[in-house]
Each structure stands twice: as structure tokens, then as C-alpha cells.
User: What shape does this take?
Amino acid sequence: MPPSPATASRSLLGRLDESEFTARHLRIYVTVLIGHFLCGFVINLTGVILPGVIKTFHLTSEAAGAFSSALFAGMLVGAAVAGTVSDRFGRKVPLAITVMVYAVFSLAAVFAPSFGTLVTFRALQGIGLGAEIAVVLPYIAEFVPSRHRGPLVTAATAAWLIGLPTAAAVGTAVVPAFGWRAMFVIATVPVVVGVFMLATLPESVRYLLRRGRTQAAEVVVGALCRGTTAPAQHAGPEPLAESGTLRTLVARNYVRYTIAIWFMEVCAGAFLYGLSSWLPSVLEKQGVDLLKSFGYTAIITAAGVVGALLAGQLINRIGRRVVLGGAFVLSGLFCLAWGTTAATAAVVILGSLATFFGSGLAGSTLFAYASELYPTASRATGLGWAAAWQKVGGLIMPVLVGFVLALHASQFLFFLLFGVISILAGIAALVATFETRGRTVEQITREIAGEEAASALTPARS
Assistant: This one.
């Protein structure tokens, strides 16, 4: 007698979660990692090209802030929409399309004849960039073995963060010789990665099971997890639920955690994007040579990469709540200290510590947490809305900093803004985070829903 759909799903999910990390896992992971790195590179072009754009189009500080925010407005839309699309239509095709979208508008930006046209292309590019973030992390969380989920999601965030110092380093070599438009030429490379994704990536097993496509899921698991068997106690499939619905995120059992995630993401976005957009210009105003300011920015932001790489090990050992709360608070305190000095060594050291804890430990842990908190039916929607709120911070902060600088206010105010928002995010993390350490994504769903609801779970049908 063939196994029931629920038994088959439980077996496949058990094999997926308990598998060793195979060569096939690695090939898939490296492919999506390259796309995510390029996403970070393209987003973080702003700080590198902004001085050149200001000179080319004779921009005021307010207009320059608006240019930075246009990207995040597009990313907000892309993140919010793509999560819902991915939950309803799968992970693979939406992920590949998002990568190709931001590459195509990079090419369009190369030939932008006016500032208004450049802003428009950057906003449209932002839709693809925001959408990529909303899809790629749930995809990783759903196909890697459970014990590797935290480290691999945070490592993906580290790859994204590497895009920032890489953009600064490439800009140092390219912009003086070829101008700021050359950076957009480089940013067309992701179209190749998008095509490769379409040709090689498998669909998410959890998505296939929710659509009742058990045979397709068996093929994927067989290729990924040869020789593994399901543990008898595996939690099994999640409940049948409407895919990609915002109602799940604000339902009674989730609303507290959702509000906390959204608030932390606003603060994290304000910190990351406000700093990356304006730091070279602020250093230049302090008397640092433009090329040196690119170099210092690369060093400072590279510290965030180190923090993201360490985050995966820390969250598996001490949990998401402690890492989030402690890292955000420490980042805020280092920002306050950073604003009190103009000495080069102190600026680099304090800036590196602030980004190590803020963009690195806290920022990467926050995305890992958001990618595993919600049920499969709404996982990309949850991550998409979290990313969208991050872009709200990225939308507000560059404009706010632009106005602050236009008022010729004290440089300390610039760093005070970043310090306060980081400390507030840390408080939110400590009081309203659901600890997900050591649990499969199905176990997380059951614990939040409650055991009574869990007893009635059945596999989804197409």
C-alpha cells in the first residue's frame, strides 16, 4: 500500500532537513550566492557614484538625497510584491527574473541623458533588487539541511555585504579613469547569472509539496540527499493555508513578532543604506581626499562582512534574540563614540566596530530570523515585507541626512542619528523575538500556532 501524502511529505522533509551538505547543495548555494553578491554590489553603487553624479548634474544636497532614496522606493515595491508572487508561483523563476531585471536597468542607466531619467532607471532597477532579496533567502532556508540553515543564510547576507566594499574598491579604480557611468556597465553582468539560474536551479521542495507535486519533490530530494532517511519524529508538513497572504503576518500568533521585525528592519535599513550612501561624502567634508574616503569606506563596511560570517555560528550557539539585541545596542554605542572623533585611526576603528555589530551581526541575523519565522505558504511574503520595511529606512535616512548636511549641522548629529536607531532596534529585539534556534521551519510554525492547531495539519493540495 503506497504511503499517504502526509507520510510521503514527512519522509521527504525529514530527508531534506537531516541530509549532509552535498556537492549538489553546494552548486545550488554558490549560484544563488553569486546573484546575491551582485545584488549587494549594484545597490551599493550609490555611495561610489554619488560624488560624480552630483558634479555631472550640479545637484544640491537635497537632490542628492532624493537620488539615493529613489532606489529604495523601487526596492520597497519590489520586496513587498515579489514575496507574494514567490509564495504563489514558486521560488526558482521569480528569483532568476529579479536578477535579470536589475541587470537590464543597469544597462539603461549607462545611457541616461538627464538626472530625471537616471533617477527613473535607478528606481526601476530597485524593483528588481528588492525583489531578489525577498526571494533568495527563503529559497536558501527551504533547501539547505536544517542544522546549516542559520549559518548559510547569514553567510549569504555576508556575500551581499561584500558588495559594498567591493563597490568601493572597484569605484576607486574605475571612476577616476572612466567616470561613474562605467560602474553601471559592470552592473550588467548579473543577466548571465539570471539565465544560469533558470537553466539549473531546482524548485523549492517545500513549495512543491504545498502544491501537491510530490513526485517532482521526490526527484529534487533524490538528487540533493542521496542515502538519507527521514527521522521518525520529523514534524512533517505544514497546514493548508492561503499562499502569500499578509493576514498570516499580522495574525494573533504572529503580530507581536511581525511588528518587532518591521521596526528592526526600518532601523537596520536606515543604518545600512544611510551610512553607505553618505559616508564617502561625509568623510570628504571632513577633509579626507575622495579616493581615500572610498578606501576608508571599503574598510569600514568590510567589517560588516566579518560580522555576518560570525553571526551564523553565534546564532546556532546562543540564539537569535541575544545576538540581535546585543549587536544592535553595541553598534549604537560605537556610533556615538564614532561621532566624537576626527582622527583617522579612530574613525576607521570605531566605524568598523559599528558596522561589525550593526550591518554584520545584527543585520544578517535579522534576515535569517525573518526567513525562518513564517510558515512556508507565507515565508517569502514575510521576508518580502521585512525587506520592504528595511527599504523604508533606506528611503527616509538618505533624505534626512541630506537635509542635516544642508543645514551645516555638527558632524556629531550625523552619527547620533545612527546610534539612536541602533539602540532602539536592540531594545525591540530583546523584548519581542521568538527564539528559533535548533528548530526546523515546521517546528517553528507549530510552536507559534500552538499544539492544538498543529494536530490538525495536513499537506497542501494544488
About this structure: Residues 451-462 have pLDDT under 50 and may be disordered. The domain at 5-227+237-454 is CATH 1.20.1250.20 (Growth Hormone; Chain: A;). The CA atoms of residues 223 and 377 lie 24 Å apart. The chain has 20 helices and no strands.
